[in-house]
Write a structure and sequence with these properties.
Two copies of one chain form a homodimer. In chain A, helix 2 crosses helix 3. Chain A contains five helices and eleven strands. Chain A has a single domain (3-190), classed as Rossmann fold (3-Layer(aba) Sandwich), CATH 3.40.50. In chain A, helix 3 (61-72) links the parallel strand 4 (53-57) and strand 5 (76-81). In chain A, strands 6-7-5-4-8-9-10-11 form an eight-stranded mixed beta sheet, sandwiched between helices. In chain A, strands 1-2 form a two-stranded antiparallel sheet. Chain A is globular. With 195 residues, the first copy, chain A, is of the alpha/beta class. Helix content of chain A is 28%, strand content 36%. The first copy, chain A, has helices spanning 3-11, 32-45, 61-72, 131-142, 161-167; strands spanning 13-15, 19-21, 29-30, 53-57, 76-81, 91-98, 103-110, 119-127, 146-156, 172-182, 187-190. Chain A binds chain B through residues 17, 19, 21, 23-24, 27-33, 35-36, 58-59, 62-63, 66-67, 69-70, 73-78, 80, 82, 84-88, 100-102, 109-110, 112-113, and chain B through 17, 19, 21, 23-24, 27-33, 35-36, 58-59, 62-63, 66-67, 69-70, 73-78, 80, 82, 84-88, 100-102, 109-110, 112-113.
């Protein structure tokens, strides 16, 4: 097991409905040393790529994307949900469905911050059915940017998001892939990955 | 001028309606070196306090709070807007109005992550009328925690939030306080502060 899988075993909580709560260290309370380590690990895995920008989506992706972007020393951009009066009219937009919140959101990125010169690393905390991720990919590609890689902290391997993104040819790496989990027995089984 | 005021002069955009856009470096695209520096500066200013936790609110506060929390080597907690199925029922909650989005949100923090043993540093990107900040203070105090300090990146000094929070006795430090701004002439005037 890697450092993240160990942490999930220690502090993750399995709930009914295939919900894995990691809010004591990853997406409500955040362990800063763990975030630093996640940033370094993604940097190590994608170090061969000439990344110009890290892209994520609010809210829980932001700290992780910053942890990664500071290792690459490139700017981080986060897609926003819904329209704010502080955003110019000139923006990339797409609609995504949220598994967690059971609703749909417009997500937007200002056209000022993504261009055809960009080589993007997309970062997010969770991958389940892949809706948010597909939204980010579609925004990056609308900008003419190249999606060089995708880094996910926790992938739910029993949902179809990861498989469909990989089938499209994207280089997707997840620090932990959950093969199955069981709320009754409080167990999590991880997919075996090459170190 | 300090490093942040200089950056605002260089890359901030003044819009009608007292809107200062800093989305090229602070709250949409994020300059990671600037964030690191903001984290270090707040650590320097509040180094005399025995901070146990950094508290902020999603979304644009998250990266800044992480930058600060990693300098203190303490956990960061961000308050969430609206209820998620991934949050337990046992939470602190309060209602805040958003100046930017012209709406009201419930903000919530799980009771697991704030306690009467905590000495809190609250961090946020903007302070205008202080609604979000008062929400965070009320959540921290509902937990019995002590709000030791409040660090704001950009305060709109011509709105009443900063004055009312200081009048309540809180130690509030803003890296930049805008005294006035003018969209017609594209000018920003900062309040003179002790270095």
């Amino acid at each position: 097991m890697n450092f993240l899988e160990e942490r999930i075993m220690k502090d993750g909580v399995v709930k009914e409905g295939n919900v894995l709560k990691v809010d004591s260290f990853l997406n409500h309370q955040m362990d800063v040393a763990l975030l630093d380590k996640i940033g370094e690990e993604f940097h190590r895995r994608f170090a061969d790529l000439n990344i110009t920008k890290v892209l994520t989506i609010e809210a829980s992706g932001i700290a992780i994307a910053y942890a990664v972007a500071r290792c690459f020393d490139v700017p981080m951009v986060f897609a926003k949900k819904a329209k704010s009066i502080n955003i110019d009219g000139d923006m990339y937009t797409t609609e995504v469905e949220s598994f967690t919140h059971k609703n749909k959101n417009q997500i937007i990125v200002s056209k000022s911050f993504l261009s055809s010169a960009d080589r993007i690393l997309i970062i997010d905390d969770f991958l389940a059915n892949g809706c948010a991720l597909q939204g980010l990919i579609s925004i990056a590609e609308a900008a003419g940017a190249v999606v060089e890689g995708i880094g996910i902290v926790i992938e739910k391997g029993f949902q179809y998001g990861g498989r469909s993104i990989r089938n499209l040819g994207y280089r997707l790496e997840s620090l932990a892939i959950i093969e199955s989990m069981d709320a009754a027995t409080k167990t999590v089984v991880f997919r075996k990955q090459e170190e």
